[in-house]
Amino acid sequence: MAKKIIGYIKLQVPAGSATPSPPIGPALGQRGLNIMEFCKAFNARTQDIEKGQPCPTVITVFQDKSFTFEIKTAPASYFLKQAAKINKGAKLPGRDKVGVVTRDQIREIANVKLKDLNANDVEQAMKIIEGSARSMGLEVQG
């Protein structure tokens, strides 16, 4: 018989640097999970991802205090900021332009994020990423 799921915990953890400090420790501790076991497993699984890249993680908690976790791709804004070489988006998107991204860069990001987006193909994924770029104050060229 399958284990009974008692809940999910959603966290955004930097790749390769999970520690028992907040926000990870308190979130897992209140469910009675082994915090160090999660940190070791997460860091081992993210060792080949660029250190510090934010990784949205969904932890499935079972009744016997065991857990599994799924790591999703980094947010589109993270990739867009890297592509445009900027630190943050515009304060007034639509009015201010803080950078430029090309359609090739958007296609690259869409290919990376495709499995986590609600899109059937790369063209649809590109439209989603373009919308994110515009809402950050980035100009799309090409």
From TrEMBL:
PROSITE patterns: RIBOSOMAL_L11
Swiss-Prot/TrEMBL GO biological process terms: translation
Keyword Plastid included in the entry's annotation: no
GO molecular function, one term: large ribosomal subunit rRNA binding
SMART domains xref list: RL11
Source organism, top-level taxon: Bacteria
A single cellular component GO annotation: cytosolic large ribosomal subunit
Post-translational modification comment from the UniProt entry: One or more lysine residues are methylated.
Domain Large ribosomal subunit protein uL11 C-terminal: 72-140
Key words, A-Z: Methylation, Ribonucleoprotein, Ribosomal protein, RNA-binding, rRNA-binding
Stretches assigned to the Large ribosomal subunit protein uL11 N-terminal domain: 9-67
Family the entry assigns: Belongs to the universal ribosomal protein uL11 family.
Subunit and interaction comment: Part of the ribosomal stalk of the 50S ribosomal subunit. Interacts with L10 and the large rRNA to form the base of the stalk. L10 forms an elongated spine to which L12 dimers bind in a sequential fashion forming a multimeric L10(L12)X complex. Part of the ribosomal stalk of the 50S ribosomal subunit. Interacts with L10 and the large rRNA to form the base of the stalk. L10 forms an elongated spine to which 2 L12 dimers bind in a sequential fashion forming a pentameric L10(L12)2(L12)2 complex.
Role this protein plays: Forms part of the ribosomal stalk which helps the ribosome interact with GTP-bound translation factors.
HAMAP family cross-referenced by the UniProt entry: Ribosomal_uL11
UniProt protein name: Large ribosomal subunit protein uL11
